[in-house]
Amino acid sequence: MKAAVLLFPGLNREGDAMRAIEQASGHKPTLVWHAEHELPAGTDLVLVPGGFSYGDYLRCGAIAGRANIMDAVRAHAARGGLVVGICNGFQILCESGLLPGVLMRNRDLRFICKMQHLRVERADTSFTSAYAKDQIIKVAIAHGEGNYEADDETIRRLEGEGRVAFRYCDEAGHIGGAANPNGSTHDIAGIYSEKLNVLGMMPHPENLIDPLVGGTDGRGLFESMASFSRAA
Amino acid sequence: MLRNEPSITPALVAEHGLKPDEHQRILKLIGREPTITELGIFSAMWNEHCSYKSSRLHLRKLPTKAPWVIQGPGENAGVIDIGDGLACVFKMESHNHPSFIEPYQGAATGVGGILRDVFTMGARPIACLNLLRFGSPDHPRTRHLVSGVVAGIGGYGNSFGVPTVGGSVNFHTRYDGNILVNAMAVGIARADSIFYAKATGVGRPIVYLGSKTGRDGIHGATMASASFEADAEEKRPTVQVGDPFSEKLLLEACLEIMGKGCVIAIQDMGAAGLTSSAVEMGAKGGLGIELDLDAVPCREEGMSAYEMMLSESQERMLMVLDPAKEAEAEAVFRKWGLDFAIVGKTTDTLRFVVKHQGQVKADLPIMELGDEAPLYDRPHIPTPPKPVIAAGSVTPPMSNRDALIQLIGSPDLCSKRWVWEQYDHLILGNTVQQPGGDAAVVRIGDGPKGLALCTDVTQRYCEADPVQGGRQAVAECWRNLTAVGATPLALTDNLNFGNPEKPDYMGQFVGCLEGIGDAARALDFPIVSGNVSLYNETQGRGILPTPSIGGVGRIDDVAKAASLSFKAPGEAILLVGETRGWLGQSMYLWQVCGREEGAPPPVDLAAERRNGDFVRGLIGQGKVTAVHDLSDGGLAVALAEMAMAGGVGAAIDATAPDMHGFLFGEDQARYVLTARPQDVGAIEAAARAAGVPLQAIGRTGAQSLTLPGESPIPISTLSSAHEGWLPAYMAASPK
To answer: B209 with B254: CB under 8 angstroms?
Structure first.
């Protein structure tokens, strides 16, 4: 798999993402600076990592969403290429127009970092084929603004078109209440684009790839993408 | 000639925190009245924070050397060799007063400052820790301060991108008017490429990097500045504002140009900003420094030389670059969008010359600015000893069961999850043991090597007996590192005390330092960096003496690190160390009996070493399944923590004449272990051979903790008491 990891000033989980990609695919991704206009030739996957692009001093992801490189990412997505945005990357994809909706301040107005369970809503996409449908996975969350919101029509479409990728749940798979860490609409933790080739998610699967450090439930996402690229 | 702006009056000298005799010292040193800029420079260099004038005499007595110490105190941070060509760079520093005034920014810039100290030396930060002390939970400001400080630490560290993996949070009314915010940063560098402040070579460019200079943080300058600009200054915040985004860029840019071999010397601009960093670089290299302030990137117009020299704007660095690689370095900084300006040069004059708008604003002997700083041997009186309190003399006011539930849900012993869940403790993907254990364990790169890290001090012990308290702080830190299986290597100290001009508070300082020195020597645990914060008092009452200790240990294989959770039912529970039931200054006596009294537990350093080495050995051999150090709250609290962490209960069947002393006494040099039943015989034999007291006290199992002669306490009851207090306290509206 030929992967490009975007780097905007202020991002800080690019190393974690690169490690996860390399572990799953056996190939080192290329780090692509925001001021570039082109992705490396033959890029299969673009990953927009987490962090605080431009300090998040403006609305999260707003500046990065308008950077030079995002034109190339939009073109890549339009060709059907895979794009995944994690945490700040999800916010950037929303700001760039690749995904609908917006990430608001967490319900309790505090940054929250902890282990969090998710339900995999479907296992037939390029991002989730290594999981089973309705599988409960444990990953990390670390964000202050992960409360997904969109207008009613958008939410209806996301639900109706099967574009909710992951939902927050508790260890037993129960949805709602205290299992939702940030107040996200419909407990949404991640969503797909219309063609299911763009994924945005708040949680960090890239931090759950190692039995010594919390567990390995995050590997599935990277293995799914790697096997999709091999098949393509 | 130097043009003198406002005349230097005794009042102006006093405003700068300089005593009349210190003023005389300046006159004698330079042979004339200083300019206002020079007065500002002296006030910055000779204040307690920069000159250590009250503490230097005593700090010299601390052990700072070991074969693995690469750099001891005196640089931006301490450096130790951790093998495989790697070095660990670390330091702890206080930001107490700013955090009390403006908790979010005060704490945030505290984190920013200590991170800068670490990456200035060429290390990439891999972890942060902290030690926080707040006033009584009943005090009306406490909630606001906790909320702001925690958000500030998280706000800075999370954005910068370093995991905050450990810390300590306590409450006491003696911090009501003066909280403590001590931040520690730990980084990793190649042992052969550590960067220092020492400038070399005459005529080399001095480069200013990072954020622009503003009027923030100019302290002691209120009145002097007002004379320049009427009343505008009164509204200026004296607390600096942190910008973690700029700091992250500064980190990446600095490490990039260090990697390209551009940097000869580097010093971050922390306290006393441009003044302190320029003087340090010159004085350490035996060189003069000439600064041209017209080139300094400024955030606002019309800044005077005085203001620029005293500004504490954050996220700034000063460097001496290799002239041949100047353009290369500049390109890196431009790429990251940071300011880059040549603001001066090194000279062979040994003078510190500051020019602004064509005028010489300061011309001072550079070596003497540091070397001739005042040094005081402050009068000090030892703290009178407190009586020893026998457990038998303390009548338990409630059952041991109820006492445990109360203790585990008390402000100091409750879970600090509400705090550390606001810190990104998982970023970088190497946090093997997260907050909540004895020490954090962080893997280095892809492993298997890792570091164990922790921060400790028991201030009520230090108040009751500074020498024992100082020993205990070091011993507990060493024990916490040992409890995860690490070999303790070195420590950083952050010495928070009251007014050193009062002999009793100075006595606490001297006593604690004696204890710290004793323990550090006995445990081969040298001090490699530190910070002194004096004058922590409000309305004449000092804080509890709080010498925070931050420790670093090495773990050769993080997969073999021990943790405190009970792992399985049916395992033997073993108590290592001698238990006499010491209740003086214990959490039991304070929180359950309402008495803050007595002598604290004595620290037998030989026993610490023997017992700790024994436990570490067992961990290395894979003989034990869980390990926990005993400290605040004693055995019962430790057992409760192990049960809650593992979701496995225990039944304790030991007997003692005074069971409350046995369960809650805070005797030192102790650990609780669990082991598979078949391994117990061998462990007991090894303990006998090593002369280590060891006692089998029960077995793990069931979903409750059963203390001798008491009804079982369900783990869920313990957990709801333990996890409940802090969120409920923070959610409640202030009184």
So the answer is: yes
Residues in chain A: 232
pLDDT tens-digit profile of B46-105?
988 888 899 999 999 999 999 999 999 989 999 999 999 999 999 999 999 989 999 999
Asked if A91 contacts A61 with a C-beta cutoff of 8 angstroms, the reply is yes
Beta carbons of B78 and B118 less than 8 angstroms apart: no
Distance CA B87, CA B71 (A): 10
Return the ∠ at Cα A47 (arms to A42 and A53), rounded to 5°: 130
Contact between chains at B245 and A207 (C-beta distance less than 8 A): no
Average pLDDT score, chain B = 93
Full residue range of the structural domain in which residue A82 is found: 3-231
Share of chain A above pLDDT 70, in %: 100
**C-alpha separations of B211 from B226, B283, B337 in Å:** 25, 25, 10
Specify the amino acid at residue B552. V
* Interchain CB contact of B558 with A (< 8 Å): yes
Element containing residue B613 per DSSP (H, E)? helix B605-620
Residue-wise DSSP of A109-143: SS-EEEEEEEEE--S-STTTTTSPTT-EEEEEEEE
Q: What is the pLDDT of residues A159-193, one digit of tens each?
A: 999 999 999 999 999 999 999 999 999 999 999 99
Checking phi first, is residue B230 left (phi over 0); if not, alpha (psi -120 to 50) or beta? left
| Cβ contact A13–B427 (<8 Å) | yes
Please state, in angstroms and as integers, the Cα–Cα distance from residue B238 to each residue in A45, B148, B450, B460, following that order: 48, 17, 40, 32
Domain harbouring A185, CATH code: 3.40.50.880
Catalytic sites of B, residue numbers:
49, 95
The number of folded domains in chain A is 1
Q: How far apart are CA B314 and CA B106, in angstroms?
A: 12
For B245, name the nearest residue in chain A, comparing CA atoms only: A55
- Indicate the pTM of the whole model: 0.95
Low-confidence ranges of chain B (pLDDT < 50): 1-2, 220-236
